Amino acid sequence: MTTRQRFNLVLDWFEKNAPSAESELVFDNPFSLLVAVMLSAQCTDRRVNLVTPALMAAYPTPEAMSQASVEDIYHYIRSVSYPNAKAEHLLATAKRLTEVYGGRVPDNIDDLQTLPGVGRKTANVVCAVQWGQATMAVDTHIFRVSERVGLTTNSKNPLQTEKQLVKYIPAELIPKAHHWLLLHGRYICQARKPHCEACGLTSYCRFYKSL
């Protein structure tokens, strides 16, 4: 089986079995999405969704959050992972959005990555989820699933995985494919014990054929 054939089969399976895959983060606008994605680093979406309603009610815009203190923001996010660093990044990002971008969240990965605490993965998520752009964010789930299934080969880091995935996934499917692979890794192809018995990709999976 060629790599392209495997991609076609995997994408076709997801299209038929998970046509409405989308982010599990709850958000109302580009700013609340950016905040949620920043908070989700090494933290579950479920935990983030418990935190963001009160946080965004208190600071619904970059301008409002830019007037807060680190301690103010920490109060709302203290139950997430690394709350001290994230509170600092959120405040600094709110100030930069206000001072440099007129209170608007940039719609491209280059400008997004100038925001404190925003790396390529976060920027890709925002661009794909908010604006449907063909940007592939690679987290630990996507990195693992792609290599196990055989969509990538000997990928050493997220950027290598991203490049291999976007080479074969049609641009219009990339935003959805991000969620397909992420959710598959979160619930089926888990790190310690993949649930191969519940997986519909075993016919195409390189990992399963090696068992």
Could you describe the 3D structure shown?
The chain is mainly alpha-helical. It is built from twelve helices and no strands. Helix 2 packs across helix 3 and helix 2 (30-39) packs antiparallel against helix 8 (120-131). It has helices spanning 3-17, 30-39, 45-58, 62-66, 70-77, 83-100, 109-112, 120-131, 140-149, 158-168, 174-187, 206-210. It is elongated, with a radius of gyration of 18 Å. It has two domains: 3-22 and 135-210, Helix-hairpin-Helix base-excision DNA repair enzymes (C-terminal) (Endonuclease Iii, domain 2), CATH 1.10.1670.10; 30-131, Endonuclease III, domain 1, CATH 1.10.340.30. The two termini are 18 Å apart.
Helix share, percent: 55-70%
Total helical elements: 12
Instruction: From the 3D structure, determine the CATH topology of the largest domain.
Output: Endonuclease III, domain 1
* pLDDT < 50 runs, ≥5 residues: none
Instruction: Give the strand content.
Output: under 5%
> How many DSSP E strands?
0
The CATH superfamily of the largest domain is Hypothetical protein, domain 2
